[in-house]
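Researcher: Let's do a round of design. I'm pasting the structure tokens now; please hold your answer until I've finished.
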């Protein structure tokens, strides 16, 4: 069956076949053999980090010399396979990490496949004149070392790979150990996509057992010129202390501010939809609300009566604090769980339509000030708009990551935008519209708030190179 495609058409070609054509066919057959013989997936998977980096380096030497069109063929295969296997990837992620929601994870994978920028993001700036022609081109770094979170495991690996390969790099991942099986599946798929497009194996690599030690090897390795960290503050600090160029996509604690001019009923729906998406795992998701006092009760009313919110009593809040927070930080067994499960953990039984836990509290309340990554929305009362801005800025903790506002007053929106100074600010919509889901613009799962790239894309993974021809090639 494997050779079926090489029947009549190739017999007709055989008379004129030269060595190059034979080589091309052999390459194609080898690629097909590699795919069919590795259905369970071992492409790009190594036991030793040094071997993974060496393999990615060899692959980069090939990618570097591929045309943009060839690179785009790899990207379009990754997009197609991500869509075809979105459900498998989503199920694996939820099963392995115990976090999130399969339906929402399917949507996230389709979003990655459709809206992550590819080679079209790599552009050239040109000047031509009497003294010649000067270009600024975006060149690859080489092999990128990427660290990925367990909250969006395959989403981040696929999104990073599309952008990094489009830019002419290859990538070695040190993923979260809690999501290693899902990551291996995604990395194998990426290499299958490359081979099927006539590209090399090992365009994305990883190790079977990622640890802090394998991460340290990657961070120190001479063949890794750029590190990209997506995760909490610890990993971003580690990468930025490595002595190498680093892109740091760190933690957030996005507040959603609702002022007295908002469409309060719509705001209630948008905020709860954003907050509960994938059980609040996205770093951009609404983590708490700051509401101006005059509309606070109305907002609570709509969230409870129309949006499936459960109003937690003081006693239930205390039980939640004791359950979801430990002296060492978040209880991992609660991260990315749905509201019904979280309430079940404190002995409260609710119907299936309950999707979020709400309560009123001070901004210092631990369920409000901590980045929880679970559908618990504390609501802080502000006496007026200025007070609301002050409280929201405090709650964002200087992460400069994401914030949201529901308001029809453009002066208020502008004031908030300047004060909170975040990479993302969504106005009058759910947080996920910032990822291009129900909003304009492209998708990413690496939002580099700390180092300033913002929503990363292929161009973030390039270096700027000036190419100058003096006194020629201007034909104006
Ligand atoms: P995490 O920080 O526990 O782990 C992220 C990755 O960093 C993992 O691969 C982990 O093994 C590694 N890591 C952690 N500490 C490290 C260290 N000192 N040295 C080397 N590697 C280290 O985060 P998580 O629970 O997987 O993900 C959730 C966190 O990530 C949240 O804080 C969330 O806001 C953030 N996040 C940010 C973005 C973004 O784009 N800015 C996207 C997703 C998640």
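Researcher: That's everything. Go ahead.
Model: Designed sequence:
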């Amino acid at each position: 069956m494997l050779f079926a495609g090489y029947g009549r058409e190739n017999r007709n070609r055989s008379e004129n076949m030269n060595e190059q054509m034979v080589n091309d066919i052999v390459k194609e057959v080898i690629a097909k053999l590699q795919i069919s013989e590795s259905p369970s997936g071992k492409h790009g998977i190594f036991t030793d980090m040094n071997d993974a980096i060496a393999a990615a380096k060899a692959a980069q030497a090939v990618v570097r010399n591929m045309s943009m069109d060839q690179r785009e063929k790899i990207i379009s295969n990754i997009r197609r396979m991500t869509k075809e296997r979105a459900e498998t990837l989503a199920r694996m992620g939820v099963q392995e990490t115990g976090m999130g929601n399969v339906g929402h994870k399917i949507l996230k994978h389709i979003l990655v496949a459709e809206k992550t920028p590819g080679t079209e993001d790599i552009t050239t700036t040109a000047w031509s004149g009497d003294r010649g022609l000067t270009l600024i081109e975006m060149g690859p770094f080489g092999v990128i070392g990427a660290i990925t979170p367990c909250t969006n495991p395959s989403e981040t690996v696929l999104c990073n790979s599309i952008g990094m390969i489009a830019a002419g790099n290859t990538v070695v991942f040190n993923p979260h150990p809690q999501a290693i099986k899902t990551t291996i599946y995604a990395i194998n798929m990426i290499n299958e996509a490359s081979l099927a497009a006539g590209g090399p194996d090992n365009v994305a690599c990883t190790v079977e057992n990622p640890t802090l030690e394998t991460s340290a090897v990657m961070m120190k390795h001479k063949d890794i010129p750029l590190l990209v960290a997506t995760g909490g503050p610890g990993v971003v600090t580690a990468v930025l202390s490595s002595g190498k160029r680093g892109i740091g996509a760190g933690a957030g604690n996005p507040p959603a501010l609702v002022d007295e001019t908002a469409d309060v009923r719509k705001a209630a729906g948008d905020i709860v939809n954003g907050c509960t998406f994938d059980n609040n795992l996205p770093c951009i998701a609404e983590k708490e609300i700051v509401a101006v006092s005059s509309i606070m009760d109305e907002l609570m009313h709509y969230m409870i009566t129309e949006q499936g919110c459960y109003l937690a009593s003081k006693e239930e809040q205390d039980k939640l604090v004791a359950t979801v927070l430990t002296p060492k930080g978040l209880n991992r067994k609660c991260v990315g769980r749905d509201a019904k499960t979280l309430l079940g953990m404190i002995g409260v039984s609710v119907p299936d339509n309950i999707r979020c836990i709400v309560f009123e509290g001070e901004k210092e309340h631990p369920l409000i000030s901590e980045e929880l990554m679970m559908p618990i929305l504390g609501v802080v009362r502000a006496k007026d708009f200025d007070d609301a801005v002050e409280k929201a800025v405090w709650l964002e903790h200087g992460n400069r990551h994401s914030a949201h506002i529901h308001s029809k007053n453009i002066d208020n929106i502008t004031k908030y935008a300047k004060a909170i100074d975040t990479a993302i600010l969504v106005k009058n919509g759910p947080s996920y519209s910032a990822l291009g889901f129900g909003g304009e613009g492209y998708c990413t799962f690496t939002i580099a708030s700390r180092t300033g790239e913002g929503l990363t894309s292929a161009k973030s993974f390039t270096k700027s190179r000036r190419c100058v021809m003096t006194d020629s090639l201007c034909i104006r």
